[in-house]
Amino acid sequence: MEQTTCIKEIINDLKFMVKNEPETESNDVKLDRFKSGLEKNIQSVLSRMGVPKRFVSPKSNITKLNLKSGYYFHGPVGTGKTDLAVSFLKNVILNSEPLCEYDGKYRLQDNLGLFVSVPVMLLNIRGAFKSETIEEMDLIKKYMKPEILIMDDLGTEKTTDWVIQTLYVIINSRYEEDKQTVITSNYSLEEIRKNLNDKIASRIIAMTEVIEIKGIDRRSAISVIK
Protein backbone atom coordinates (compact mmCIF):
# COMPACT_ATOMS: atom_id res chain seq x y z
CA MET A 1 0.00 0.00 0.00
CA GLU A 2 2.77 2.36 0.97
CA GLN A 3 4.59 1.56 -2.28
CA THR A 4 1.46 2.31 -4.32
CA THR A 5 1.01 5.64 -2.52
CA CYS A 6 4.64 6.54 -3.15
CA ILE A 7 4.31 5.77 -6.87
CA LYS A 8 1.17 7.90 -7.11
CA GLU A 9 2.96 10.79 -5.45
CA ILE A 10 5.84 10.48 -7.91
CA ILE A 11 3.43 10.39 -10.85
CA ASN A 12 1.62 13.47 -9.52
CA ASP A 13 4.96 15.25 -9.19
CA LEU A 14 5.86 14.33 -12.76
CA LYS A 15 2.49 15.60 -14.03
CA PHE A 16 3.04 18.89 -12.17
CA MET A 17 6.50 19.22 -13.71
CA VAL A 18 5.15 18.61 -17.22
CA LYS A 19 2.39 21.18 -16.78
CA ASN A 20 4.85 23.80 -15.58
CA GLU A 21 7.63 22.98 -18.05
CA PRO A 22 8.15 25.81 -20.56
CA GLU A 23 6.90 25.04 -24.07
CA THR A 24 9.61 24.08 -26.54
CA GLU A 25 9.81 26.66 -29.32
CA SER A 26 8.63 25.49 -32.70
CA ASN A 27 10.91 25.63 -35.71
CA ASP A 28 8.74 28.39 -37.15
CA VAL A 29 9.34 30.56 -34.08
CA LYS A 30 13.08 29.91 -34.22
CA LEU A 31 13.15 30.68 -37.95
CA ASP A 32 11.25 33.93 -37.44
CA ARG A 33 13.68 34.96 -34.70
CA PHE A 34 16.65 34.13 -36.96
CA LYS A 35 15.26 36.19 -39.84
CA SER A 36 14.50 39.10 -37.53
CA GLY A 37 18.04 39.01 -36.15
CA LEU A 38 19.49 38.70 -39.65
CA GLU A 39 17.64 41.79 -40.85
CA LYS A 40 18.69 43.72 -37.75
CA ASN A 41 22.35 42.80 -38.22
CA ILE A 42 22.49 42.82 -42.03
CA GLN A 43 25.15 45.55 -42.09
CA SER A 44 27.53 43.33 -40.11
CA VAL A 45 26.77 40.39 -42.39
CA LEU A 46 27.51 42.49 -45.49
CA SER A 47 30.72 43.73 -43.90
CA ARG A 48 31.88 40.16 -43.22
CA MET A 49 31.21 39.33 -46.85
CA GLY A 50 33.63 42.05 -47.93
CA VAL A 51 31.34 45.01 -48.56
CA PRO A 52 33.18 48.30 -47.81
CA LYS A 53 31.84 50.36 -44.91
CA ARG A 54 30.63 53.09 -47.25
CA PHE A 55 28.21 50.69 -48.95
CA VAL A 56 26.82 48.53 -46.10
CA SER A 57 23.63 50.62 -46.02
CA PRO A 58 22.55 50.53 -49.68
CA LYS A 59 19.78 52.85 -50.83
CA SER A 60 18.94 51.40 -54.24
CA ASN A 61 15.54 49.89 -54.98
CA ILE A 62 15.83 46.47 -56.62
CA THR A 63 12.20 45.32 -56.42
CA LYS A 64 12.06 44.66 -60.18
CA LEU A 65 15.17 42.47 -60.27
CA ASN A 66 15.10 38.68 -60.17
CA LEU A 67 16.98 37.52 -57.04
CA LYS A 68 17.87 34.25 -58.78
CA SER A 69 19.53 35.92 -61.76
CA GLY A 70 23.00 37.28 -62.43
CA TYR A 71 23.47 40.88 -63.57
CA TYR A 72 25.96 43.06 -65.39
CA PHE A 73 25.49 46.70 -64.32
CA HIS A 74 27.41 49.13 -66.49
CA GLY A 75 27.44 52.90 -66.88
CA PRO A 76 29.41 56.07 -66.13
CA VAL A 77 31.41 56.57 -62.96
CA GLY A 78 29.39 57.52 -59.87
CA THR A 79 25.94 56.45 -61.07
CA GLY A 80 25.24 54.04 -58.19
CA LYS A 81 26.24 50.70 -59.69
CA THR A 82 28.01 49.48 -56.56
CA ASP A 83 25.14 50.57 -54.32
CA LEU A 84 22.74 48.69 -56.59
CA ALA A 85 24.89 45.56 -56.51
CA VAL A 86 25.14 45.63 -52.70
CA SER A 87 21.40 46.19 -52.40
CA PHE A 88 20.93 43.12 -54.58
CA LEU A 89 23.29 41.08 -52.38
CA LYS A 90 21.48 42.27 -49.26
CA ASN A 91 18.12 41.09 -50.60
CA VAL A 92 19.53 37.74 -51.71
CA ILE A 93 20.83 37.19 -48.17
CA LEU A 94 17.56 38.20 -46.51
CA ASN A 95 15.60 35.87 -48.81
CA SER A 96 17.98 32.91 -48.66
CA GLU A 97 17.08 29.59 -47.04
CA PRO A 98 19.11 29.22 -43.82
CA LEU A 99 20.56 25.95 -42.57
CA CYS A 100 19.09 24.30 -39.48
CA GLU A 101 21.73 23.01 -37.06
CA TYR A 102 21.41 19.75 -35.09
CA ASP A 103 20.37 21.77 -32.01
CA GLY A 104 17.56 23.47 -33.92
CA LYS A 105 19.35 26.79 -34.39
CA TYR A 106 19.49 28.44 -37.79
CA ARG A 107 22.45 29.96 -39.60
CA LEU A 108 23.35 31.21 -43.07
CA GLN A 109 24.69 28.58 -45.42
CA ASP A 110 28.43 28.42 -45.96
CA ASN A 111 29.90 30.46 -48.85
CA LEU A 112 26.61 32.24 -49.43
CA GLY A 113 27.99 35.55 -50.67
CA LEU A 114 31.15 37.55 -51.29
CA PHE A 115 31.84 41.11 -52.46
CA VAL A 116 35.16 41.82 -54.18
CA SER A 117 36.74 44.76 -55.92
CA VAL A 118 38.19 43.24 -59.09
CA PRO A 119 41.48 45.23 -58.97
CA VAL A 120 41.99 44.27 -55.29
CA MET A 121 41.11 40.65 -56.01
CA LEU A 122 43.75 40.50 -58.73
CA LEU A 123 46.34 42.11 -56.45
CA ASN A 124 45.62 39.51 -53.76
CA ILE A 125 45.97 36.63 -56.21
CA ARG A 126 49.18 38.07 -57.66
CA GLY A 127 50.52 38.53 -54.14
CA ALA A 128 50.18 34.76 -53.65
CA PHE A 129 53.18 34.36 -55.97
CA LYS A 130 55.33 36.06 -53.33
CA SER A 131 54.02 33.95 -50.46
CA GLU A 132 55.34 30.55 -49.47
CA THR A 133 52.21 29.66 -47.52
CA ILE A 134 49.44 30.70 -49.94
CA GLU A 135 48.79 28.95 -53.22
CA GLU A 136 47.49 31.08 -56.08
CA MET A 137 44.87 28.44 -56.93
CA ASP A 138 43.58 28.50 -53.34
CA LEU A 139 42.85 32.20 -53.70
CA ILE A 140 41.18 31.68 -57.07
CA LYS A 141 38.97 28.98 -55.54
CA LYS A 142 37.91 31.53 -52.92
CA TYR A 143 36.15 33.45 -55.70
CA MET A 144 34.76 30.35 -57.37
CA LYS A 145 32.94 29.00 -54.29
CA PRO A 146 30.40 31.67 -53.20
CA GLU A 147 26.81 31.07 -54.27
CA ILE A 148 26.66 34.74 -55.23
CA LEU A 149 29.75 36.79 -56.08
CA ILE A 150 29.72 40.56 -56.54
CA MET A 151 32.60 41.61 -58.82
CA ASP A 152 32.90 45.37 -58.53
CA ASP A 153 34.70 47.61 -61.06
CA LEU A 154 35.56 45.12 -63.78
CA GLY A 155 37.73 46.75 -66.43
CA THR A 156 39.54 49.28 -64.25
CA GLU A 157 42.50 46.93 -63.77
CA LYS A 158 45.56 47.17 -66.03
CA THR A 159 45.12 44.68 -68.85
CA THR A 160 47.80 42.02 -69.18
CA ASP A 161 47.76 38.43 -70.39
CA TRP A 162 47.93 37.29 -66.75
CA VAL A 163 44.93 39.47 -65.80
CA ILE A 164 42.87 38.21 -68.75
CA GLN A 165 43.68 34.57 -67.99
CA THR A 166 42.93 34.92 -64.27
CA LEU A 167 39.61 36.66 -64.88
CA TYR A 168 38.66 34.04 -67.45
CA VAL A 169 39.39 31.17 -65.05
CA ILE A 170 37.16 32.70 -62.35
CA ILE A 171 34.31 33.82 -64.62
CA ASN A 172 34.31 30.62 -66.69
CA SER A 173 34.28 28.47 -63.55
CA ARG A 174 31.28 30.32 -62.20
CA TYR A 175 29.59 30.03 -65.59
CA GLU A 176 30.16 26.26 -65.74
CA GLU A 177 28.99 25.75 -62.14
CA ASP A 178 25.94 27.96 -62.76
CA LYS A 179 26.89 30.22 -59.83
CA GLN A 180 25.10 33.56 -59.47
CA THR A 181 27.38 36.46 -60.38
CA VAL A 182 26.79 40.22 -60.32
CA ILE A 183 29.33 42.45 -62.07
CA THR A 184 29.65 46.22 -62.11
CA SER A 185 31.71 48.09 -64.68
CA ASN A 186 32.20 51.50 -66.25
CA TYR A 187 32.39 49.72 -69.59
CA SER A 188 29.84 48.18 -71.92
CA LEU A 189 30.29 44.54 -72.87
CA GLU A 190 31.49 45.60 -76.29
CA GLU A 191 34.26 47.58 -74.58
CA ILE A 192 35.01 44.60 -72.32
CA ARG A 193 35.26 42.47 -75.45
CA LYS A 194 37.87 44.85 -76.87
CA ASN A 195 39.79 45.49 -73.62
CA LEU A 196 39.81 41.88 -72.36
CA ASN A 197 38.60 39.27 -74.85
CA ASP A 198 35.63 37.63 -76.56
CA LYS A 199 35.59 34.64 -74.23
CA ILE A 200 35.12 36.73 -71.09
CA ALA A 201 32.45 38.90 -72.71
CA SER A 202 30.54 35.90 -74.07
CA ARG A 203 30.53 34.18 -70.66
CA ILE A 204 29.20 37.34 -69.01
CA ILE A 205 26.45 37.59 -71.62
CA ALA A 206 25.49 33.97 -71.00
CA MET A 207 25.36 34.24 -67.20
CA THR A 208 23.90 37.70 -66.57
CA GLU A 209 21.20 40.13 -67.54
CA VAL A 210 22.81 43.31 -68.85
CA ILE A 211 21.52 46.60 -67.42
CA GLU A 212 22.87 50.01 -68.37
CA ILE A 213 22.82 52.57 -65.55
CA LYS A 214 22.42 56.08 -66.87
CA GLY A 215 22.90 59.37 -65.09
CA ILE A 216 25.47 61.86 -63.88
CA ASP A 217 28.37 61.27 -61.49
CA ARG A 218 26.68 61.79 -58.11
CA ARG A 219 30.02 61.88 -56.32
CA SER A 220 31.11 64.95 -58.27
CA ALA A 221 28.11 67.03 -57.23
CA ILE A 222 28.98 69.74 -54.70
CA SER A 223 26.44 71.41 -52.42
CA VAL A 224 27.31 74.82 -51.02
CA ILE A 225 25.71 75.74 -47.69
CA LYS A 226 25.15 79.48 -47.35
Task: Characterise the protein shown here.
It is a single chain. With 226 residues, this protein is an alpha/beta fold. It is built from 9 helices and 7 strands. The chain has helices at residues 2-20, 27-40, 42-48, 81-94, 118-127, 136-144, 161-176, 189-195, 198-207, and strands at 71-74, 99-100, 106-107, 113-117, 148-154, 180-185, 209-212. The model is unreliable at 219-226 (pLDDT under 50). It has one domain (24-217): Rossmann fold, CATH 3.40.50. Helix content is 47%, strand content 13%. Helix 6 packs across helix 7 (161-176) and helix 7 packs parallel to helix 9. The termini are far apart. The strands form 2 sheets. The chain has a 5-stranded parallel β-sheet, with helices on both faces. A two-stranded antiparallel ribbon has the order 2-3.
Task: Briefly say what this structure is.
The protein has 226 residues and is α/β, with parallel strands linked by helices. Helices cover 47% and strands 13% of the residues.
